[in-house]
Amino acid sequence: MPPSVGRSVRPSRGPVRLRPRSGARSALVASLTFLLSGALLVVLPAAPAAAADDVATEDATVASGTGPDAVELDTTLFVPGSAGADEPAPAVVLAHGFGGSKDSVADDARDLAGRGFVVLTYSARGFGASTGQIGLDDPRYEVADLSTLLDTLAERDDVLLDGPGDPRVGVAGASYGGALSLLGAAYDDRVDAIAPQITWNSLSAALFPDAEGTVEGAATVAATPQGDGGVYKRLWAGLFFGVGAVPTAGGLLDVLGGSGGGGDVDVADLPAIDPSSLDPAVVEQALTCGRFRADICAAYSDAAATGTLTPEIAEILDRSSPAGVLDRITVPTLLIQGTQDSLFGLGQADANARGIAANGAPVRVVWYDGGHDNGATARVSSALRDDVAGWFSWHLRDEGDPDRGGDPGTGFRFPAPTGIATTGLTVQGEGAVRTVVADAYPGLAGAEPARRLPVAVSGPTQPVVTPAGGTPAALTTVPGLGAVTAALGGATVEIPGQFAAFESPPLTAAVEVVGAPTVDLAVSSPTGTAVLFAKLYDVAPDGGRTLPAGLVSPLQLTGVSTDPAAPTEVSVALPGIVHRFEAGHTMRVVVSSTDQAFALPAEAAVYSVALADGDGAVVAVPEVDGTPIGDSAATRWWVLLGVLVGLALLGWLAAVLWGRRQRRRVSEVEPDGEDVPLRFEGVTKAYKDGFVAVRDLSFEVRRGQVLGLLGPNGAGKTTSLRMLMGLIRPTEGRISVFGHAAGPGKPVLSRLGSFVEGTGLMPHLSGRDNLRLYWAATGRPAADAHMEEAIEVAGLGAAIDRPVRRYSQGMRQRVAIAQAMLGLPDLLVLDEPTNGLDPPQIHAMREVLRSYAATGRTVIVSSHLLSEIEQTCSHVVVMAKGRKIAQGTVEEIVGTGGSVLVGLASGASDADEARAVAVLEALPGVTAERTDDGLVADLGTGTTRAAALQALVAADVPVDQFTPRRRLEDAFLALVGESS
């Protein structure tokens, strides 16, 4: 659902071309369709003619998914003439907006290809000529499709690879495509950089917003609550569903048995259809749901009928929301959000920025004057195009690449606040564009917290009527045209008796609001619940009022006081805006009971609304200091000249300081170091004879985990641990311990205890003396050793005081483990710790490691004993031939493929069991047999567990149990076999 950006697009409106209709209604429909078409927000500037002419295109159909969820994706690849096997180029996947197709982003792809990127465009499942049903960016479907496309890119010799099967790739998209880029980075670690635009953090919060409450710990300018359910955004949701429900490119004809085909067709070309040949259920599904999946269609129907966010609806929306997986996104992220957007406001980008920056990933935030409600001007679009191109150039190209460009940094840019409500009616390309740049987004990744100016407001307690049936309702936001209505002065309508108003004195100086202001209210309701809408108006001295961007903050209040004399206090986040309140103007907080864009209560009621702090009430207004930048033609030459002079000075300075820089390196400390005790990033170890022991190894271990490093002999496990210990240096890449670079003699290694390759004990000394000698060598106080605790772990009893030369191999092993635990290190690294231990000792060791990690410390265990890894570790990294071939929790590694135990419901007959066997063995690669444990199906690699279960359910087999029987050993052997 991305906005227009000053160029025409061909919206996907279904297989039938309708005649244009005249009048206001057709103009509104055309505007909304234009805003919801597939145009990518960031349309790159035209490439030089020679470069554009040198771009070749390749159309292909790519198969994705399995079983009933298999689809054919319609793709087009744009390949620059400069890319080839001798000089592969980084790739970019462009995802289109909701209602669009690959054609929506074709111009953008050609321009990016003209800059030297291999660009892949495609129509998402359910759109354009691609088959399948719309899953709303479901990780199981649309995100899995993205991974399939990355596999396709990895097979090309003109695409730069980071490793086998791993292309150097960025993902960009707007709205629907923007959420896909975020989810793709969370679920597929091959994505190297993303540029999501005007998209969501929580689809539940976007479609059921509730601005009541505060965001815990947030110090950013636009932090708004992303709650569990609020007021249903009825008009936007209806428009959203309507665009998807109208099939595109022959979709409806295919369902009904017609000819289908791509593109629009004339009514006269449609084939005659015999109604008697159609399945009524299929017809109803097609007409009511279009290309949506059945569960999404049902969820929309429930929401439209009840206006309530049920657990079933929330499960669907949350599955398609980046909010739940932000902690997985660690790649450089450029977040672009519009200030004129009543669908996905600034708070959505704010939440994404906070979540991703918390992982230590570089995050740059750009707000622009536009959004789903308002197309950007040509000048604004040009600046955004350069942002995306520059972001990918820096983060996808190698150092030394002449096309890399400059470091875009992690700053913040936003439109210069004005008191004028801008609209898309501005002549494209006219006038200067002024923006403000700041060094950092306030409150993000160590930046200074947002500064808030208190503006006093006052007003008495006021009754607010909510009418029966929610009619008449206030008019503020028209989906797709919210900014336009706000700019028309007086177009917003507040119904007398349905709102309370609180006003500031005339401002003595201008106030520039950048973000979401907050205010505290006191509310009572006779029913204990209330639906309200809070707004912040700009009122001029002559009484004229402006609602910035036409935005409102819905409130879904429950558990409020029923006594007007003792109201409930609530904190409210007003809409996130960029607006200048001029001197002499006033701020007016309006709290109304209705808004025609939202679902409203059917029962009439009278609420009591007041300011929580009475005479001391304030609106807390976020402000941001920055440097205004003009973008008129007159100033651009001076900017260019300044840049050239600056580059010359920087070149001279770099030459002078180069040697000094080499001698005095400042250690970079990762901000999430305490939460990520160990991180490998692209680590390779190659020896002079050409042998590569470890190749491009990347993984991270979080606090409290017990991670098993698993692999056959020669996999590179011990080499990896020796590099971690500083015993050998990696050839490439970085190893960080608690955020600090690891290496020989690094102070941070004092927080690490280890046992790698041999005990290293002195044979003529006792076990106790060996421990004392080791600790003395650290130079730390004896009291910090926790010696007795370590000896207890060893479990040697009186033998601890006998010479080590009299120890068995298992006894030496236990002393070495106790030595590693001296000082109770925060990170414990053990290489084959159970070698030489008998079963009771192995069991005891397992309990020790689990309890050790439970204290908040972290344990790394390298072992070839798969059963011990399975029973001891919470997470696993599987290696083979020096590479990581899998990573995840033990459950994730074990719980894919393999065998499943199928239990039938009590009372099932032998015939049911025989039918289950027949259904299963009809699936690709599946064998089934009856065992003493029950019916066991070996799924092999041809059928997923989900597909097998769906087949049984579809055949009416009474399934009562369906559980995996795969062991870690099975998973390990399968993974190692695949890596061969």
UniProtKB/TrEMBL annotation:
PANTHER family: ABC TRANSPORTER, ATP-BINDING PROTEIN
Gene3D superfamilies documented for this protein: alpha/beta hydrolase, Galactose-binding domain-like, P-loop containing nucleotide triphosphate hydrolases
Protein name, as recorded: ABC-2 type transport system ATP-binding protein
InterPro entries named in the record: AAA+_ATPase (IPR003593), AB_hydrolase_fold (IPR029058), ABC_transporter-like_ATP-bd (IPR003439), ABC_transporter-like_CS (IPR017871), Galactose-bd-like_sf (IPR008979), P-loop_NTPase (IPR027417), Xaa-Pro-like_dom (IPR000383), Xaa-Pro_dipept_C (IPR013736)
Domain ABC transporter: from-to ranges: 678-906
Residue ranges, annotated region (Disordered): 1-20, 398-417
Domain of life the protein comes from: Bacteria
Family: Belongs to the ABC transporter superfamily.
Molecular function per GO: ATP binding; ATP hydrolysis activity; dipeptidyl-peptidase activity
Key words, A-Z: ATP-binding, Hydrolase, Membrane, Nucleotide-binding, Transmembrane, Transmembrane helix, Transport
Organism: Trujillonella endophytica
